[in-house]
What does this fold into?
Amino acid sequence: LIDPSETCGFPIVNQINLYREIKHHFGDRPIILAFSKKDLVDEGRIDEVGKAVGDPFIAFSSLTREGVDELLDAVISYARVLPQPRTR
It folds into this structure.
């Protein structure tokens, strides 16, 4: 989760670096990258951060719910293809 508005208190460069570190540790496991607080920034800022990250993302706003359905659909789609845990 990245906050392009930076109202979370962390500079965007720190957020991107943390995402890259997590991605590195997860290897080839799927990650859904989401940009929150879409309502607080313009599309240009979202595009700018998206280019800096270099990976597909879903931008959404919890306040206006814009993009929330798309994010939920992505989570459900990924969950359907994940391997089931082994039972003993």
Notes: The beta strands are 34-35, 58-59.
